Amino acid sequence: MKIIKYLTILFLACAINACTKLEVAPTNIIQDNDVFTSTGGIQIYFARMYSELPIEDFRYSPARGLNMFWIISPFPAVTGEALSRDQRGAMTESVLYWGDAYGLIREVNYFLQTLPKYVSNFDAGDVQSWIGEAHFIRAFTYFSLAKRYGGVPIVTNVLEYPTKELSSLDVPRSSEEKTYDFIASDLDTAIAKLSETNQQGRANKYAAAAFKSRAMLYAGSIAKYNQVSLFDDSHNRLCGIPSDKAVTYFKAAYDAAVMVEGHYSLYKKAWAAGDKEAQYQNYVKMFFDNESPENIFVKQYLYPQSVHGYDAYNVPRQCMGPNGYSSEVSPTLNFVEMFDGLPKNPDGTIQNLDATGKYKLFDNTMDIFSNAEPRLRATVILPGDMFKGQSIEIRRGIYTGSSAGGISPLIPAGATIQYPTTNLVQSANGSQQAYTLPDNTTINPAGASGTFFADETCSQTGFSIRKYLDESLPQSQVKENNEDQTWIEIRYAEVLLNRAEAAFELYTAGQSGADYLGDAFTDINQVRERAGADLLTAPTDLNDIKIIQKERRKELGFENKIWWDLKRWRILDKEQNNALYRVMMPFMVAENKKYFFDVRKDEKNRYYSFDPKWYYEQIPTDEINKSPSLKQNPGY
Amino acid sequence: MRLAAVLLIAATLQIHAEGHAQKISLSEKNASLQKVFKAIQKQSGFHFFYKDELLSAAGKVDIEVRNASIEETLDQCLRDLPLTYSIIEKTIIIKQKAALPPPAVDLAPTAEITGVIKDQDGRPLAGVNIRNKRTGKGTATNAEGRFSITASTGDELEITSVGYQTETIKVSGAQQTIDLSMKVSASELENSVVIAYGTQKKKAVTGAVSSVTNAEIVTTKNENLLNTLTGKIAGLRVIQNTAEPGNFDNTFNIRGLGNPLIVVDGVPRDNIMRLDPNDIESVSILKDASAAVYGVRSANGVVLVTTKRGRKGTLALTYSGNYGWQIPSGLPKPLDAIGYMTLVNQQKLHNVNGGVPTYTQNDFDAYKNGSKKNYDWYNAVIAKSFPQTQHTLTASGGNDNTTYFLSVGYMYQDGMLKSGDLNYKRFSVRSNITSRLTNRITLDLNINGILDTKNQPNSDAWWIIRSIWRQNPLDPFYANDDPAHLFQGTVDGTNPISLSHSDISGYKIYNNKIFQSSIALTYKLPFIEGLNLKGFYSYDYQVKDNKFYQKQFNQYTYDQASNTYNKSVQNSPSSISREFFSIPNSLSQVSLNYSHVFGGIHNLDALVLLEQSTRSSDNFYGSRQLSLAVDQLLAGNSLNQQVNVYPNKDSLYKITNRGLVGRLNYGFKSRYLAEFSFRYDGSSKFPPAHRWGFFPAASLGWRISEEPFWMNSNALTFINNLKLRASYGKLGDDRDANYQFITGYNYPASGDNNRHPGGSVFDGAFVNALSSTGIPNPNLTWYTSKTFDVGIDAEAWKGLLGFTVDFFNRDRSGLLDYRTLSLPGVVGAILPLENLNTDRTQGFDLEVNHRNHIGKLGYFVKVTFSYSRTMMRYKEQAKAGNSYLNWRNNLNNRYTGIYWAFGDGGRYSSFNDIYNSHVALSRNTLPGDYALLDWNGDGQIDDLDQYPYAYINDPAAPLIQYGITIGGSFKGFDLNLLFQGAAKNQVAYFEQLNTPLWGSDRSSALSQFMDDYHPLDPTADPYDPNTVWVSGHFPYTGTVPPTNSAVNIQNGAYIRLKTVELGYTIPGNILSKIGVKGVRIYGNAYNLFTITKLKYVDPEHPSSTYGYLYPLNKSVSCGAVVNF
Predict the structure, then answer these.
(1) B490, A429: Cβ pair inside 8 Å?
(2) Contact residues, chain A, for B492 at CB < 8 Å
(3) With an 8 Å Cβ cutoff, are B763 and A201 in contact?
(4) Is A515 in a helix, a strand, or coil?
(5) Segment (H or E) for B264
(6) DSSP single-letter state for residue B278
(7) pLDDT tens track for A544-595
(8) Each residue of A381-421: pLDDT tens digit?
(9) Do residues B677 and B659 make contact, with C-beta atoms less than 8 angstroms apart?
(10) Which of B149, B731, B1030, B1031 could form a disulfide bond with B785, CB atoms 3.0-4.6 angstroms apart?
C-alpha cells in the first residue's frame, strides 16, 4: 500500500510541477521578421497588394464592386455598349471605393517604411525595383480614387493610432490638380526605379509609363471638359482642374505613351494583310496569348485559388454551363453600328429595309454581316456566327404570314410597343414547343440562344458578347468561379489611343514641338489596320476628336474602360438623356425559311438617364461623419 | 505561483489549529483501543486514563464517526465492549462496566434480517442505506432493492435514501423480513447540488444555481442533450435551430448572456450535445457570481455536467432504447403547376403600363385535364417520415472499495431525404470507476469515447431545400420523362433529385472521434481529519476527419424539335477533398479541500486549487481532381491539387491558462451562510502586462426559517425553508481575443472565390498573400463582468411547494469592439479590438415546484420562467451627419435588438382607399397592398417613417422563455408532459419566405402565397377600378413587404408541447422468472404540437440562411427501459 501512497504523491507533484507556460507564440500569425527576410516574403507581400489593386476586371461591376462574384449589371450594360437582364437603366457605382483604397495605400506605405530596415537581406537593384513597384501600386490606387471623387486626401506614411490623436487623422482632401500631380510624381518614381522586366501580373517600368499616359490623359480631359467646381475653405479646387493645365497633362500623357514605343507592339501573330478571317482570328487570340507583345500589365487568374466567372455569365444561351447562367451581356445595335463593313443608311444606321420600306430578306442571318470588320466579329457574336464549333442561333420568332409582295415592318419605326401576336410564333422561354414549318420540318420558334419574350436569360438585342470568351472551355466547365483567363489591364493599343488622343488635343490646343496630328494619324491607323477596319487616308481626315473617341470605343469596348472615357469626356449625360438603346431582331419567314431583321428600340423599355452629378461620385457619408474636414462632392 | 499555494495551504492549516478541541472524525476498522484512544487524544486534546489489561482484554473495535462530540465518539467506540467511561475535566477514565443482570429471556438472537425496498410504484430501489442504529453497522440495497443486515429484537433500523423520506423500523421478535415502500421526499433541501469544483447541499447553497437530474432529462427523447434540457432549468435558454442529423445547431445560453462555459466532469469541454443522456447524473448551471471561480471564461455563466458513477452492490444492468419516426415541423411546400402559373400571370399583369399574362387558359386546361403533368418536387425528394433510434446499455455496481459505471450507447438518426443519404450515427462508451486504493487514497478514473459520423449528399440540406422550393412544377423530374435522363432544371440548372442522392452527385462525410479521460487521486490527509489533497489530470483528444466527394454526373434537356437530349455535365471534374483536425486538450489540477464542523454549529469548507490547461488545434486539408471514378484520394491526378491549413483562430491555435482558485464557505447553525471565492487567472491570449486577472466573488445566505422565532411560531412553520441569498462578483471572458497585441500577418491570407482572393497569380503560379493583423493593441485584455444576484428560496409544507426566484444585474465593461466607426477611412487599417463597450443585462428567473401524493396518485408540477434583456450602456460609434441620424443610430442606453421598421397601417382594400390615401402612393399601387404607417405624418413614406418597432435578434433570442413540466404516476403508469414556450421575440424572413417567384420567373413559390389578394377573374386587368377583388393574407403577386416593416415581421412567441411521455412499469413478479427485474415501456413524442401566431414555419427556426435551414422535427417514439 505504501507504493500507492508514493505514486499518489508523485502524481500530485507532477501535476503541480508541470508548469504550463503562458508565453505561447500564436501558431497562426507571422511577423515582419518572417516576411522581410527573403524574396519569397517580399513576393508574398506584393501578392497581397496586387490582389487588392483596384482593377475593374472580370470580377467588377458598378453594382457589386471590386473582387466580386455574380457579376450582374456589368459595366457594358451601364455605358450603352450592351443591355443586360439585370440592368434597368443608367447608374453610377453603388459600391463606393474608399476604405479599401486607403487600406491598400497603408500597405504600400508600410512596405516603403519597413523595407529599408531589411535592405541588407537583398540585392540593391531588387530593392530599388520593389520601391518603384510600390509607388506604381500607390499611384494606381490614387488614380482609382481621383477618377471617382476628384481631389482626395493624400496619405504618404503609415498613420499611427492609438499613439496619435484621433484628430490628427482627419486628413482633408487635396485639390484634384494636386492629386493628379501626386499620381504623376509616384509614377515618375516608379518609372525611374522599376526594372524593365518583371513577373507577369506585376508591373515593370513600361507598365508605369503606360499607366501614366492613361492617368494624365484623364487629368487633361478633366481640365478641358469638366464644368463642375468645388472649393474648400482654403480655395483648393477639390473638383475640377484649371483649364490652362490641360496642355500640361496632355503633354505628360503623350510623353509617357511615347516612352513605351519600341518595347511593346500590337499583337499580330496570326494577322495577315487583307485576310479578314486571319484578322478576326488574330483579334480573338490576342486575349488568350500570355506571351502577347501587346500585354503591358495584366492580372492573371489560376484555377482553383483565384478564379472568375466571365464565361458562365456571358456565354450565349445555347452554350450555357451546368449552373444555368448565360447571356448577361447583349451588345446593342448602337455599338455594332459603329463598325465598318455593314450596309448602312445615310445616317449611319444599319440598312434592314429595302427601298420600298419592306424588310430585306436573307438566306441566313450572317449574310447581312458578310463584309463586317473583323474586329466586330471578334468582339460581338453576330446571329448565326460560329462559336465553339456551333452556329449561335439567335432568332426572335417565326413569321407565319405571307411574304408575297414583301413584308412590312412589324411595328412602326421608333415604336416601343410589343410585337403583335398575329402571324408570329414566339417562345416565352427556353422550354420550347416545336413548330412545324410548311415543309413539314420541325423547328423551335426562337433560337437556341433566344430571344424569348418572357425570359431574359438569352440574347436581348440580337447579339451576344464574344470578346474574352474562352472558346476552348468545355461546356461542363462554364461555371461561376471556374474560369481563369488573364485580364489585360493595359495593352499597347490603349497606349496608342492615349497617345493619339493626347496628340490630337495638343494639336487642337495649337501646341508645337512635334507633328502631333501626324502622330495621332499614324497611331489610329495602326489600330485600324490590325482591326481590319477602314484606314484614314490622310492626317487631315482626322478633323474631329470624335473619330478618336469612336476608335477607342470600338477597340476597348467591353474592357470596362468606356464608362470612364464617356465620363471624362463629359458626354455621358448627353448620350444617356432618356435614351432607349436599339436592338436588331432576326425573324424567320415560315414560308421560305428566309430571314429578315427588325430594327427597333429596346423591347423592355429600359430608359437610360445619366445624372450629371455622377461625374463626381459621392464620398461615403460615414467617412464624412468620421472626418469633419472631408468635404462632400456637389449634389450629394 | 507555487509560493502562493504554499501560503494558502498554511493559512488553511492555521484555521484548523484554532478549531482544535471541537469535533472528532475517525474511521478505523479492527483497530486496537490504544490506537483509537491515541487518535481521539490527538484530535480532542483529552487525555485517557486506563488499565492496560482492561484494554487488551477488550479486543479490537470498528469505529466510524464524523464530526462527532467526544461522548458520541466514546459511546460508539465502547458500545459492544464491557467497558464504560467518565469524563473529568480533560481526562477520560475508562473502567469496567458493572455486570449486567442476566436477561429475563435469552438475549434476543442476532438474526439476519432481509428485505426489499421499493419505491411507491413498486420499483426496486438500489443504493438505499440501511443502518442498525444500535450497532452503527450499515448496508445498502442492491439493484433489486434487496438487503440483509444483522439485528436483534428491539433494534431500530434507519432506512435512508436521497430523495425519499427517512424511515425507522423497530425489529420485532419474529421478524425476518422487512419489505418497505419508501415515500418520496418532497423536500429537496437535503439533495446535493453540483457546484464549481465540488458539491453542496441545496440548503447551504448561496449562489444562483439550478440543476436537473437524470430522471428529468431523459423524459425528452432527442439526439442532442441540449434539446433534452429545454424548459427544464430556470435561466437556461435553449433554442433548437435545426433538427438536421449531426448538426447540433443550437442557440444556447444562460440568462441571455452569451455562450457559457461548459464543464463536463470538472473539465471545460464543449461537446455537451453529443453526450448520451442516459450517462448524465445531473446538469447544473451557475448563473451568478458563483461562476467566478472559472475566472477568465466565466462571464456568461457555467454549465456543469456530471456523469453517473457506480453504486455499491451487485451488477445492475440497464438497457434503455427507443425507436421513433420524425416528420418536419414547419417546412412549407412549393406550389403545384396551376398555382405557379396563376402567380406568374398575376406578376405579369401587375404592371401599371399594361401587362400580358404568360400562361393562357389553354395552359391551365392542359394541367387541369391531365394532358400535361404537374411535378411535385417536394414529395420527390422529402420522405413522409424518417426513423430515429437510440440504445444504451449501462452497468453499475461495485463493492466497498471499488464502484464502476459502464455504458455503451448507439444512436441513429435519419434525415428527411427520400434518398436516405442524409443521416447520423453515434457510438459512445463510458467507464467511470472509483476505487479506494487504501484507506486514505481514492482513485477516480473516467474514460469516455465517442465516434460519430454524419453522412450527407454533396449538397448541403439548406441548398436542397432552396432548390426544392424554387423548382418549377412545370419542369419534369426527367427529361422527356425518361428516367435515364435527369432533367437539367431551369432554375440555376439544379435538380433536387440529383442534389439529394449521394450516388448521383457525391457525398460529404463528417467523422468525429472524441476521446476524453481524466484521472483523480484523492488523499485524505492523515494528520488532519477533513482535509483532502486531490490531484487531477485530464487529457482529451478529438479528431475531425472529413471527406467530401464531388461526383460528376449528367443532366439533360430534351429538344422536341430535333428529338434529341442535350447533355449538361454537372459537378465536373469529380474530386475528393479531405480535412483533418487534431484537437488535444489537457488540464491538471491540485487542490486542498477542508471540511469541518466546529462545535456542531460552525460549518467550514475551504478549497484551494491550482489549475493549468493547454488547448490546441491543428489541421490540414487537401483535395485532388480524380482521374479514376474511384472515391479515394489515391485516384486523383496532379492537376489543381491543393494542400493547406485553415489558419483561422478557431482551427489553428494553442492557448494556455493557469489559475489559482480559493473558496471559503462558512455556515453558522445552518442559519447564516457566507461564501467567498476568488480566482487568480492567467491566459496566454494577452500581453504579459495584462495577462493576469483577479476575479473575486462573495455571497451571503440567511435562512430565516432556521431562526428560533420562526421555528417557534405556529403561523410560520408551514414554511419549512425560507432563504434569502445575495451574491456579487467579478467575472471575465477571453473568448474573442486573438493575439491582437502583436503586429503581424495572417498567412496565408484568407481568401474567397466569391470575394477577395487569398493571393495573386504571378507568372502563372498562385502566390498566397499575407494580410496584416492590423494595428496592434498592447493593452488588450478580457472584458469584465460584474454580476449581482439576489434570490429567495422557499419551501412550504415540507416540500409540497417549492419556490425560487432570482433577480440579477450584470454589468459588462471592456467589451471588445473595433473603433472602425470612429476612425477615418484614410488610416486604412484594420483596427485592433479594444476594450471599449459596456452593457447591462437585467432579468429574473423563477422556478416553482409542487409535488404531492393523493392515494396512489403521485404527481408533480414544475414551472420555470426567465426573462432577461440587455441594454448597451456605451457603444463605440461614429458621429453621424445630423442630429436625427445621431439619435437614430445611437445605441447607447438602448436595448439591443431594437428593429427599426415602418409601422403597419393596414391594407388598401379598394381603389377608393388608394385614391383617398393621405400619403403619396406610386401609381402601381393595388388593392391588397400594404399601407405603411406615415409615422411622421408628412404625407409621404420614406426612411424617416421608420421607428423602433420590434425586438429582433438573430440568432433568435426570445426575451422570455418558460417551461411547465407536469408529471404523475398512478399504479404502474407514469405520464410526463413538458410545455415549453418563448415570448417577446419577432422574426423576419426574406427571399423565398417573403417573395413569391423569388429570383426569376422560372422559380416557383411557396404554396402559402396562393392566399393572396387577387381579382375574382384572373384575367381581369388589376388596374381596372371595376375589377372585383378577393382578399387574402398576402398582397397581389409582385408586391413584396418592405424588408424593414411591420408587415414583414411576425411574432415568434409560441408555446409547444415539447415532450409527452406515457410509460407503464410491468410489475416485477411477472418478469423475475426470466431474469428481468423491471421493465418500463413508454411512448414519447417531441414537439407534438405548437401554438403560435407565426405562420408556415417553426417559431424556433431561425431566419438566418434565408430560412432555408433544415427544419425542426416532430417525432414520436416508443421504447423500453429494462433492468436486469
Answers:
(1) yes
(2) 323-324
(3) yes
(4) coil
(5) strand B261-264
(6) G
(7) 999 999 999 999 999 999 999 999 999 999 999 999 999 999 999 999 999 9
(8) 999 999 999 999 999 999 999 999 999 999 999 999 889 98
(9) no
(10) B731
